[in-house]
Write a structure and sequence with these properties.
elongated; 339 residues; 11 helices; alpha+beta; 3 domains; two-stranded antiparallel ribbon; Alpha-Beta Plaits
């Protein structure tokens, strides 16, 4: 999952994000919020660097710059969700502005009442002071009521913004997930691959990719039907998530019956062991008929492991992992080959 902050941490980030948004000219909308959230959280290194560069030429970032940063460094959410959240956010901001305006009007009136009371005090005439004291007391009560109303409005809006933030993050997560397996889809894979390649290498470590493919999957669909085929893919997604539980690893459905695991700053020995564990866990997986509970079939995987080499493009890593996978297929399947 992209966002792992606790409720308390995200609440603190809400305050930081709103403060940042207030310092710039861009509108208070979900696009701005998403950009400043990732900046404040320090979770998107490329975005942080891009914002720092933009601030050198534009001290108060506007809508055009924020939209550009969003498109370049933040994954789009569902447009309908963005529109809904934008409308709700604008409604909240309008309500808060109205409450602040009422408080300001009452503050102005209260100031006039206090000025009148001051002038009456200077006359030393008790009878002249009475109406001004009454007005000042009434104004004090109104100001207290107005301040409490504004405070309550701020509290309600802060809670609502937190809810909208959750909705926005959920929508963005959905864009990156495969609906059947609930692991990363191809778009999520591409994003995590770019992040991995931007990560500096530790001593004696390399960035690795494991490509996996279900053996004879067409035969599974032809013999048992696509419903069983989908169950195989769904179950494999769970196996991959279980075996690759390290939060630095990224598991994805690369396409169809093909899957991938990204392992930044790893070793060949570790990757080979992990791939073998996945293969063994997959063979142990039993696909049952839900009506009779009888085992319908078992499946196996073939895997290829490749490291990112100096001077490689993204396509080079993918092609090398795919070639290693193809070699496993040639060797009889149900095995792992390193490029």
């Amino acid at each position: 999952m992209r966002y792992k902050e606790s409720k308390e941490q995200s609440a603190e980030l809400v305050r930081s994000v709103l403060a940042l948004m207030g310092q710039h000219d861009a509108a208070f909308n979900p696009v701005s919020y998403a950009v400043w959230y990732e900046f404040a959280a320090g979770m998107n290194v490329r975005l942080v660097k891009a914002i720092e560069a933009a601030l050198q030429v534009e001290p108060r970032l506007g809508d055009a710059t924020l939209n550009r940063l969003y498109q370049a460094h933040v994954v789009d959410a569902d447009p309908e969700v963005i529109q809904r959240i934008s409308s709700e956010l604008q409604y909240m901001m309008a309500g808060m502005a109205e409450s602040a305006l009422r408080t300001g009007d009452r503050a102005g009136l209260f100031s006039e009442q206090l000025l009148g009371l001051t002038e009456a005090l200077n006359t030393n005439d008790p009878s002249a002071m009475t109406p001004f004291v009454t007005q000042a007391l009434a104004g004090t009560l109104q100001m207290r009521s107005s301040a409490q109303e504004l405070e309550q409005q701020i509290i309600v809006n802060r809670l609502e913004i937190e809810r909208l933030n959750i909705d926005l993050l959920r929508a963005r997560d959905e864009v990156l997930l495969d609906p059947l397996t609930r692991i990363l889809n191809r778009k999520g894979f591409d994003q995590q691959l770019a992040l991995m390649l931007a990560e500096p290498l530790a001593l004696n470590r390399q960035h690795y990719m494991i490509m996996l493919d279900i053996d004879h999957f067409k035969q599974v669909n032809d013999t048992h039907g696509h419903v069983i085929g989908d169950r195989v893919i769904e179950a494999l997604g769970k196996v991959l998530s279980y075996c690759s539980s390290d939060k630095t690893h990224s598991v994805a459905r690369y396409g169809g019956e093909e899957f991938a695991i990204l392992l930044p700053n790893s070793t060949l020995n570790f990757c080979l062991k992990l791939a073998d564990t996945v293969l063994q866990q997959t063979k142990a997986m039993k696909i049952r008929d839900r009506r009779t509970q009888q085992v319908v079939l078992t499946v196996s995987l073939s895997a290829g492991v490749a490291a990112m080499l100096p001077g490689d493009e993204v396509s080079d890593l993918i092609e090398r992992a795919d070639a290693a996978l193809y070699q496993s297929k040639k060797m009889g399947r149900d095995c792992v080959t390193a490029a």
